[in-house]
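Reviewer 2 asked us to include a model.

Predict the structure of this chain.
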Amino acid sequence: MSENKNSRVRDSDANDTWTVYGQTLHSRLLLGTALYPSPAVMAAAIEASGAEVITVSLRRQAPASGGGNNLWDMIRQLGKQLLPNTAGCRNAREAIALAHMSRELFATDWIKLEVIGDDYNLQPDPFELLKAAEQLRRDGFAVFPYCTDDLVLCQRLVDVGCEVLMPWGAPIGTGLGLLNPYALATLQHRLPEVPKIIDAGLGRPSHACQAMEAGATAVLLNTAVAQAAQPVSMAEGFKLAVAAGRAGFCSGAISARPTANPSTPVTGTPFWHQQ
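Predicted model (structure tokens):
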């Protein structure tokens, strides 16, 4: 029986996996644990999303000092890969110190590196971010740098040993979607082998689908799910959107055209006339 090449591509990618820092993952949706109306809603949303990786904040959870024990206990019971973050840090020194504390408390080398340089749009500080990333890689961390979509910055992060990039779609929590598709396409073209997780600014499932169609490896969400009217349903919606976008990317979408192109051309088609 003959095989259809396009069908073979779709079948192989329907359950595809990806690898980051030596760990194989099946889900291409990562989810945050902040801002939910209750721990129970958070847990239900995470399960509905199918996410295998969830972000946690040391400054918010503070498990060692007893802060947020109920939430922390529930997070541990989920059995997910934890990705602690350095949210709230303003320079490399703070971020490095917090990363080391996170490794001790959360028992993982994974760290989502955030070094914020602007209070208004929460834009990452590229200089302090690069400095922190270089040191943390030397210290044995698996660094997931939250960065802008600047090509040169991303190249430098890869140069110091980052095996994944987390460029923003838009400023954190805005829900604006992909503000600069050209810059993200440039990253995909110039750094095709580096996994790219679109992080921050996505507000709707269609935004996630667009990111995946453009070649993103995965997306990371928090506000868009946690502050939705129905977080659990929204988490499932994003799960489906990520899968749809991935399928579209792997299947090879047609190119946009400025003029119409008939789906049923008449050239070479026989005409039947009534006698």
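Confidence is low (pLDDT under 50) at residues 1-14, 63-67. The first helix runs from residue 5 to 14. We have added this to the supplementary material.
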